[in-house]
Structure formats: C-alpha cells, structure tokens
Write a structure and sequence with these properties.
The chain has a 5-stranded parallel beta sheet, sandwiched between helices. The radius of gyration is 16 Å and the shape is globular. By secondary structure, it is of the alpha/beta class. It has helices spanning about 15-25, 30-40, 45-65, 85-95, 105-115, 130-145, 160-170, 170-175, and strands spanning about 1-5, 25-30, 70-75, 95-100, 150. It is built from 8 helices and 5 strands. It has a single domain (about 1-175), classed as Rossmann fold (3-Layer(aba) Sandwich).
C-alpha cells in the first residue's frame, strides 16, 4: 500500500510525509525532489527548457514509478492531480490524503516563504493572493476527485496531523500487513 499526500503548495505535504512514514515504519519520498534528482535539473529549469507539458509528462512517469513501491508515503507535487491518469494511479495504489488548507492560510504561508527568500517560483506571475485563488479554483475539483480522505491542515501541528491521518486510515492500515495505526 502507498499513501499519497496531495494539496496545494505550502499545505505541508513535504514536511508531513517523513513524519507519517516514520510513524508507520515506512519510507517517504517527495515527488518533486525525485523529479529533480532523476532529471538532473531543478523544476524551474525543467519548466524553462521543456515547458509545463514536458514537466507534467516527467511528473507522471516518476509518480507512476513511485506508486509501485510498497509501504511508501508520497508527497506529491501540488499540480500532480491535474492529470486524470495520476489521480487514477494514486487511488489504485492506496489512500490519497488531501491536506486541505484555506486560501487565507496558503497566502500567509507563501508570503512568509517569499519573505524568507524561499525559491518557490510563481505559478502565474500574479500577486500571491490572486494566484492562490485562481490556481485553487482549477485544482480543487481534482483534489476532491482524487481524495480518499480530506484532512483540514490549517492550524494543527504535524504530530496532530499524523495522528489524525492514522485515525482516518485505521481500517486500511490494519488490513495492511506492515501498517500500524494508533
């Protein structure tokens, strides 16, 4: 079984995946980091050279490979759900957890990242609040379609979120020989 974390950038997928995996005794992988490693280039470099279509094609190939690895928690890229094939593959591999964060919280987190010099590139070139609103409007139906479980992730600690995910996935984890739920 694979647990895939989905959600908008800055929702906490990359920081939560290792904690959840450790709790379960599984491995974790960040899909965006894996893409960069395999491509030998950063995501902005991939976008610049190959465009979004080239990046999405690479993302689907890497994600399909990662979803074959048993007992893994995957932090997907924020836009991975845009491809219907990716949503299908995620759901077939195991539970898909949408870390749902409000638009207000996302804007605050992304603004804070930018103020700290984070390298998250703009997706649209527009102000952060407009970008989040526009991109969420396009992606939320895809997150909804892919999700087995929706976890509100605005104001809870990572440890609280791990407990909450394990609680919601208890039956599936208990049915899996290597799964452990509290």
């Amino acid at each position: 079984m694979v647990i895939t974390l989905i959600g908008y950038r800055a929702c906490g997928k990359s920081s939560l995946a290792p904690r959840l995996a450790k709790r379960l005794g599984w491995t974790s992988v960040d899909c965006d980091q894996e893409i960069e490693q395999r491509a030998g280039r950063s995501i902005p470099e991939i976008f610049a050279a190959d465009g979004e279509a080239g990046f999405r094609q690479l993302e689907t190939a890497v994600l399909a490979d990662l979803l074959q690895q048993p007992h893994t928690v995957i932090a997907s890229g924020g836009g991975a759900v845009l491809a219907e094939e990716n949503r299908r593959l995620m759901k077939a591999a195991g539970p898909v957890v949408w870390l749902h964060v409000s638009e207000k919280t996302l804007v605050a987190r992304l603004t804070q990242d930018r103020n700290r010099g984070s390298v998250r590139p703009s997706l649209t070139g527009r102000p952060i609040d407009e970008e989040v609103r526009e991109v969420l409007a396009l992606r939320e139906p895809c997150y909804q379609d892919a999700a087995s479980v929706i976890i509100r992730a605005d104001n809870e600690s990572r440890d609280q979120l791990v407990r909450k995910i394990c609680h919601f996935l208890r039956d599936q984890l208990e049915a899996d020989p290597a799964g452990e739920a509290e």
